[in-house]
Amino acid sequence: MSPQLLQQFYDSFATGYAKRLDPTLDGAAERLAELAGARPGMRLLDLATGTGTAARAAARLGASVAAVDRSPGMLAVARGLSGALDLRRADAHALPFEDGNFDVVTCGLSLSHFADRDRVLREILRVLRPGGRFVASAWGEGSHLPTGVVDELLDRYDAAVRSELLDEETWLHPEQGSSALRRAGFADVSVKSESFDGSFVDGEEALAWALGWPLTASKLAGLDSAQRERFRRESLQALAGSRLSWRMAFNFYLASKSSSA
User: Fold this and answer.
1) Domains of the chain with bracketed CATH
2) What contacts 188, CB < 8 A, 6 or more positions away?
């Protein structure tokens, strides 16, 4: 999958992302802002901001926030929700900011999305001031999601969408993610693994949540109308027999730019 095609998926399903996914991801976004130490007087950049959830959390804590994303669709939704935040369309591989411009850079669930991870990490180091901090979240081990049956059903319909760009594996394992950050030049690397719990009201809500993810929604869009209707019936039947509580596990990566850099 090309970066352009991945962006199109996020453009197309940005509204559903904000409606269905953000309420379940708010806790992790708020924790990201807390770990970043967001406060008045801090200049913070939220990288790959999506619908702006983490950026808004940091702003509520008093930080002066700039946020970037390459998806116009996501930014349009973020602008509708984020008031006066400085939101810009930009590629994380070439950030439109001067060297040392930020005290902190945050990145929620997007380290796995970058085509050239090392180049992005170098850009983060460039825009951080000496001694500045980088705080990022990624999926961790121990998640339980009843919606796994939805992906399994879509695969049976041969509705797979290739996504070679996504590298969830590196960041799933703290030792691998930490090594990647150290190789890029970060210091004081540490990881906090935490989880957030909740539940879906019913199968309809669980299915809507599963289809809020752009790549999953794009798979469904590739089916014809009869297949989509059959898939929906089968999904609801499967979810009816599932425990609808969920647990989302995250790795929060904390690192710094050397004060002598």
Assistant:
1) 3-144+163-199+247-256 (3.40.50.150)
2) 254, 255, 256
d(CA 69, CA 71): 6
Phi/psi for 205 (5° steps) reads: -65, -40
Q: How far apart are CA 105 and CA 41, in angstroms?
A: 14
Give the residue, 47 or 12, on which the prediction is more confident.
47
Q: Report whether pLDDT(144) > 80.
A: yes
| 43 Cβ contact list (under 8 Å, min separation 6) | 63, 64, 66, 101, 102, 103, 104
- For the residues 256-260, what does the mean pLDDT come to? 92
pLDDT given at position 151: 87
CA dihedral 112, 34, 44, 187 (to 10 degrees): -60
Q: Name the token pair of 231.
A: 């898939």
H helices of the chain, in order, are 3-12, 14-16, 22-35, 53-60, 72-82, 117-127, 148-156, 168-172, 174-184, 203-210, 214-221, 225-240
Helix axes 203-210, 225-240, angle to 10 degrees: 130
Structure tokens given for 52: 């702006």
Residue 203: pLDDT band by 50, 70, 90 thresholds?
A: very high
| Exposed/middle/buried for residue 114 (C-beta within 10 Å: 0-12, 13-18, 19+) | buried
